[in-house]
Amino acid sequence: MALFDRFWKGSRSGAPEGEGTPAGFFPLYESTRPLDDDEDDEPRPRASATPAFDEWDAKLASIDDALVVEEKRRLRWWQRDYWRARSKWWWTGRSVMATLAVLTLLIGWLTITAPLSKSLEPIAPPQVTLLASDGTPIARQGAVVEAPVKVADLPPHVTQAFLAIEDRRFYSHWGIDPRGIARAAWTGYGGGSTITQQLAKFTFLTPEQSLTRKAREALIAVWLESWLTKDEILERYLSNAYFGDNQYGLRAASLHYFYRQPEKLRPEQAAMLAGLLQAPSRYAPTKHYDKAKKRMELVIQSMVDVGYLTAAEAAALPDPRVDVRKRDDNLPTGTYFADWALPLAREGMDASYSQQVLTTTLDSRLQALANRIVARAPLGGAQVALVAMRRNGEVVAMVGGRDYGKSPFNRVTQARRQPGSTFKAIVYLTALEAGWEPDDTIPNTPITQGSYRPKNSREQYSDQITLENAFAQSSNVAAVRLFQAVGSDKVIRTARKLGITAPMTEGDPSLALGTSSMTLMELTAAYAGIAANDYPIEPHAFARGEQGWWEWLTTPKDSMSSGTHEDLEGMLRAAINRGTGRNAVLPVANFGKTGTTQDYRDALFVGYAGDLVVGVWVGNDDNTPLNGITGGSTPARIWRDFMRGALKVEAAPKPQASDTPDPEGPVQPLDVLEGEEIPLGQDGTSLRIEEGGVTIRQDGVPVEVRLNEGGVVVQPSASPSPGQPPL
């Protein structure tokens, strides 16, 4: 303002008009105005005696700062100057925030993957004893696990033995002990991993040997040390460690090896148990006492080195005496039924140290009967499977193979094989629901068009055949034509309703003959749904209570009409009484269907009588053809013999001849290989009358006896011809 005031004063001076501005003055507006125009007598502001230089400096500095900010804004994060311009305080703040974020994520990750509560759970599933429905023990599986121990209740020499050999600096480190690692590497004993690391390893991690696992082990060890006390870590370690002989935890090991509670262990006993941890199976005193003793001496010497024992006390310790007492060890640890039932049981069990005793649906009498029937069946070298269940799905007997000890593979629940003609029941059920009647006819002539041309067994055909007779005779061409008539999509939908989950392709005509592989359990459960007229049926090993109204309301169930059910059961009865399943006939109402797959690789019979639904399968594990066994022979006889014993019925009476005319001629059993066979007993022996002689054979026997005009001839048993279509 002083500068403008100066210009103002200069313009009022007495300079001649028209002359230039006096030297030293700038030609501003005020200095060039005519003097006579100035009538403004108001005083002009006077210059400040103290100019505001600080204010001007602040304004100029703000302009500089704005320029710097704008320049930084235009920099990109990948340019070096973008980071170099940051202050130390900025870097410090961001580092602290990043560290907190990493710690938060790490704690969250550990909370999810390594919850502290998991270290309280037994690392091995506790022992479970399975009982039959009548209370008879049938199997025992799982580890021997007892109640956890408390450090405060244990004598000092018990914990000292473990600390001396496993982790001498346990109470002074933070989960990782570099000195312990170096000592282990130098001396060769006293493992490099701390007790906390070992707890982290067998509680949260796998036995995998890798740097990644070791890093996770160390991280979880620090996590455990941060949240648990030393005594809590030691208690969880001693309660879960493996001591050999299927014993988990110090209490179980103490009772097993010395029949003594851990609170009463003597020093030499504690030292022997502590020595087992390095290699439990190798040092188990029940099998390798000398090795266990040498390891015990090493533990005692470690206790002397640390100062827990004096040399004199160590020398006075006697050799411990192993005291193993039998506790119902005669029960098998595994059976086909137990292997299937236990995983189902453990799904609903809470993790705990207590042993469980569970009652199953298995009927001990029926299971023993199934074992006897299968053992005496003429199988040759083939395998066998049998499953029996109630109409509600309660499994009462299961045989998954000829010998569990030689092959625990369960052919009831694990083997997926083609069901053959047993699947035809679903095709015919679909047709009945679509409006077909058992007396309706369908062509039974050879199929000569299309790429898929199945054949009937023994090339038996006719112009027309009723649905009931086609089912009883197991006509393949009739089943395929019926399958195409009702639609593959409807047949698959019916199978799904019955609970069959096997993959099935729409439009594939071979589905009618049972080419979709499934388990015997799945197939038998579908027949249980037919028997109960309430499906799907879920096979189960443990009794279920009454279904509540909400469960009834939300559980999808289906059924067929009473007329359809009656028609289907009439077909199933015809298949046994006058069709391919005549070897399974019973003196009571019986229903079932045979099945023989391509090249005689699988032979099945599935049916029901009374309250039992039973499926039988015979075949080779390598899928090679059977030696003359079809669904109507050995499987049907096994089914019949089991049902007779299970239902306590007498042998079937001799069938009476019927004079009722059949407009289609006599029904031919297409499941019979050649000629007319007459069963002679329950062991598979049959008599076949042929032109020029009589042949006697027995299932599973490689030779047969033939009587003709030339006398008695012993010859090799006839094998089925390859390429035989399914039945």
Automatic annotation (TrEMBL):
Region (Disordered): 9-51, 651-670
Pathway stated in the Swiss-Prot or TrEMBL entry: Cell wall biogenesis; peptidoglycan biosynthesis
Superkingdom in the source lineage: Bacteria
Gene Ontology CC annotations of this record: outer membrane-bounded periplasmic space
Domain Glycosyl transferase family: 138-303
Key words, A-Z: Carboxypeptidase, Cell shape, Cell wall biogenesis/degradation, Glycosyltransferase, Hydrolase, Membrane, Multifunctional enzyme, Peptidoglycan synthesis, Protease, Transferase, Transmembrane, Transmembrane helix
Recorded catalytic activity of this chain's protein: [GlcNAc-(1->4)-Mur2Ac(oyl-L-Ala-gamma-D-Glu-L-Lys-D-Ala-D-Ala)](n)-di-trans,octa-cis-undecaprenyl diphosphate + beta-D-GlcNAc-(1->4)-Mur2Ac(oyl-L-Ala-gamma-D-Glu-L-Lys-D-Ala-D-Ala)-di-trans,octa-cis-undecaprenyl diphosphate = [GlcNAc-(1->4)-Mur2Ac(oyl-L-Ala-gamma-D-Glu-L-Lys-D-Ala-D-Ala)](n+1)-di-trans,octa-cis-undecaprenyl diphosphate + di-trans,octa-cis-undecaprenyl diphosphate + H(+); Preferential cleavage: (Ac)2-L-Lys-D-Ala-|-D-Ala. Also transpeptidation of peptidyl-alanyl moieties that are N-acyl substituents of D-alanine
Descriptive protein name: Penicillin-binding protein
Family matches, as Pfam families: Transgly, Transpeptidase
